[in-house]
Write a structure and sequence with these properties.
Number of domains of chain B: 2
Largest interface: A-B, 30 and 31 residues
Order of helices and strands of chain A: HEHHEHHEHHHEHEHEHEHHEH
Strand content of chain A: 5-15%
CATH superfamily of the largest domain in chain B: Cobalamin-binding domain
Distance between the termini of chain A: 13 Å
Helix content of chain B: 40-55%
CATH class of the largest domain in chain B: Alpha Beta
Oligomer: heterodimer
Strand content of chain B: 5-15%
Strand order of the largest sheet of chain A: 1-8-7-6-5-4-3-2
Structural class of chain B: alpha/beta
Shape of chain A: globular
Largest sheet of chain B: 5 strands, parallel
CATH architecture of the largest domain in chain B: 3-Layer(aba) Sandwich
Radius of gyration of chain B: 18 Å
Largest sheet of chain A: 8 strands, parallel
Chain lengths: 335, 221
């Protein structure tokens, strides 16, 4: 069984020769120390060394506006989540309609197809990242967005609809052109905090789920496995998300409320696959390699066989010792 | 008057800002926190009573519901908005000294960290609980905390961090501030933090949610 077959089987809930492993997507500041420790010189070389089964390949640079404009011209003065973007003061749907929304015709996937074609027999998680929830946040400012859900729901729906229309059209083009080069539709929205979901289940039902389902339906139409990335505690809505078509959850923020392996097993085992779960908030930063090995084995025992071992936050920071990453990889790929 | 104070607290808890506010739908067309506060002032209710018996109980109840997982961030935000609007009517009384805040809090996300939502929620809950809060924003250096403390020497400091990397900055910032001002209370919060971590770095406490911090401050200060 090669890596690609292995992860496909795991996500499909079918038997595999061992559990899967994904290194994650280390932060740019982390790579130098990793290469130094492992004696590697490229990302792919390190992934091969660690027996990484999974490749996250997304077309970040496929949008080519003739005037060089970004996909969404957020017009945000800063980078914090609360900082309002172009719709911070918007109270009418007309203003939303007047915005210069992106045009999927400016997408060119030729380079992306080339990269996918050169990927070995590894699982290819791809499609556009499609973080519509976060982009609505950025366009309004997070606090403003949440308030407008109550005060100006039509405006929120209008913005979300435009974002989703773009992502539906863009992913459709992507899947049409890439065909079987992509195995899983991997997209991300951080719906949770450390203690709970960010907005109530009722607001999820009105402002998030309907749009979310359009994306999962598109993935299914093209026979892709649907993998949702969401940081934080999303326990309260995981049942709903499975019902909407999610095949695997990533990254399972282990220390967030109700996101521990035992709770996930009790409530969701057999209905969905798990990618992640190795704690990055304490264990990988402060633990010893022996601690990491013991925890990986525990997670495999608890969530296996439908588990892909990976950090509980993919962007491994420079404070994670390479020894612990090595321990995670060894324990993940041992039989 | 007691009835009006109760209506005011309900308006704040439920985020009914004023008469024109469309939210919550079941209170559409009814007075909100602004109108109840105005009515109470016209009825010669002492501003301090309006704050402590009308506004703060509303924020306290919504904060408790948040801590209990019964409401979420948007409900806190909309309650805080109603409170803020009503508070504009009390501003002259704060300016004259007729009403005083519980105390002062300096709050910020530590250097290197740009995450501000949790910090902002804490700010709103503390303001709703009667504190004067000086929000230094995100990416706040230890020097900035000290400089603000020099302006407001009686303040409590609240620090936030979301990243495991910036938790270390929190440790250095706590040490730095305690060296120059040992009596200043420093509380910490943020996703990866624990009570153990707060103890280790010499902070005075860690709270997992804003309401438990507000309750603690109300109890000890």
């Amino acid at each position: 069984m090669n890596s690609r077959q292995r992860i496909k089987s795991i996500i499909a809930g079918k038997p595999a020769d061992r559990c899967g492993f994904w290194l994650g997507n280390p932060h740019p500041d982390s790579w130098q120390a990793l290469h130094q420790y492992f004696g590697t010189s490229s990302e792919e070389e390190l992934r091969l060394l660690l027996k990484d089964d999974f490749r996250w390949i997304t077309p970040w640079d496929a949008y080519h506006h003739p005037e060089g404009k970004p996909v969404f011209d957020m017009q945000r003065p800063g980078k914090t989540l609360s900082e309002g973007g172009v719709f911070a003061q918007t109270l009418s749907v007309d203003e939303v309609e007047a915005f210069n929304w992106p045009n999927p015709e400016y997408l060119d996937f030729s380079r992306y197809i080339e990269i996918l074609g050169n990927t070995g027999e590894f699982y290819r998680a791809g499609g556009l990242w499609s973080p519509f929830f976060h982009e609505v946040c950025d366009l309004f400012g997070m606090e403003n967005y949440f308030l407008k859900m109550y005060l100006y729901p039509d405006v929120v729906h209008a913005v979300t609809r435009h974002l989703i229309e773009y992502y539906l059209a863009a992913n459709r083009l992507c899947f049409q052109q890439c065909g079987d080069l992509i195995d899983g539709f991997f997209f991300g929205n951080d719906f949770g905090s450390q203690i709970d979901i960010l907005v109530s289940p009722e607001l999820f039902k009105e402002f998030i789920f309907p749009y979310f389902q359009e994306l999962t339906d598109l993935g299914k139409e093209f026979n892709k496995q649907v993998i949702l990335h969401s940081c934080g505690s999303i326990f309260r809505v995981m049942d709903d998300l499975i019902g909407l078509g999610v095949n695997a959850f990533h990254p399972l923020q282990a220390k967030a409320a109700n996101m521990d392996a035992d709770t996930l097993k009790t409530h969701f085992a057999g209905r969905v696959a798990f990618i992640g779960a190795i704690d990055t908030q304490d264990l990988l930063v402060n633990g010893s390699p022996d601690n990491v090995i013991a925890d990986v084995r525990r997670i495999k025992h608890t969530l296996g066989p439908s588990v892909v071992i990976s950090p509980s936050h993919e962007a491994l920071l420079p404070n994670v010792p390479p020894e612990n990453i090595e321990a995670m990889a060894i324990a993940a790929t041992e039989s | 008057m007691k009835k009006l104070l109760n209506y005011l607290s309900i308006a704040i808890e439920r985020g009914k800002e004023n008469l024109d506010s469309p939210y919550p739908p079941d209170l559409k067309g009814k007075p909100g926190a602004y109108e109840y506060t105005l009515q109470l002032l016209e009825d010669k209710c002492p501003p301090d009573t309006i704050l402590k018996k009308g506004m703060m109980p509303g924020m306290d109840r919504i904060g408790q519901k948040f801590a209990d997982g019964k409401v979420f961030i948007p409900e806190i935000l909309i309650a805080a908005r109603a409170m803020k609007t009503a508070m504009t009517l009390l501003k002259p009384y704060f300016d004259s000294g007729e009403v005083v805040k519980r105390g002062e809090v300096i709050i910020g996300t530590v250097a290197g960290d740009l995450h501000d939502i949790g910090k902002n929620i804490v700010r709103m809950v503390l303001e709703g609980d009667g504190w004067e809060v000086y929000d230094l924003g995100v990416d706040v250096t230890r020097e900035k905390f000290i400089s603000s403390l020099e302006e407001h020497p009686e303040s409590i400091i609240c620090m936030s961090a979301l990243l495991t990397t910036t938790m270390m900055e929190m440790k250095d910032a706590v040490t730095f501030i305690k060296q120059s001002s040992p009596a200043t209370r420093i509380y910490v919060g943020g996703a990866p933090l624990t009570s153990n971590f707060a103890d280790k770095i010499g902070a005075d406490g860690y709270f997992p949610d804003p309401h438990s911090l507000a309750k603690h401050l109300a109890d000890v200060i």
